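My current task is to audit a protein record that another person submitted. Alongside the sequence sits a line of tokens, each denoting a local backbone shape. Where you disagree with what is written, explain briefly why. This is what I was given:
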Amino acid sequence: MKVSQQCVESTRIENRPENTQSNLDVKAVEHTSKRPHFPFSIFARPSDSQQQGMQASSDKYALIEEATIYASKTAKKSIPNIDVRATPSAFSPTPAELATQIVTQICSQSAYCNDGIISIKGSLLQAAVAVNREEKEIVLVLNRNRKATGIKHILNGFSRSQPDYLYASNIAKTLVTLRDRNYSEYSITITGDQKESKLINYALKNCKQN
């Protein structure tokens, strides 16, 4: 289902568990699909347990990106406790619900969403929402990979541009506002490939100033 932007207040589904606790954390995690390289130095080298923890975190967010942006069924099977795209769920929030509310509230004629993926007309930027119910975490994936848009970037002249930073920032800010207001028991993680570190950290910095 594709949803275009409309500047109206969306209706929140009131089907949430009772006795929730606030968790207003917002963080950024860059991932890589390749095994991270650690320098061969005895100085300040992470321990084996630290390396394993860093790799596990990177792997999880890489799988979330594969399952959301690239619709990988294999990746989705590896993260069964995380709702992605149009995953049916008995409880709010769902990825599609959050993405629709974000598009509604940023009030941009260029933004639209489909199955929990927010896209920007004329831009390679895509922002996917995933919900980890087990860890009470909402994940925002930022992606500008040409492969993710297929041939659409050629036909429509999609490109990476400076406005991507503004759009990513606005999307992150709106998600934080929605979380604070309606889903305060959830933390937020902004993630993406390490090559998008500037975009990810820009969105994090600006949404924390919200």
Q: What stands out?
A: The first strand starts at residue 2 and ends at 4. The longest helix spans residues 48-68. The two ends are 30 Å apart (CA to CA).
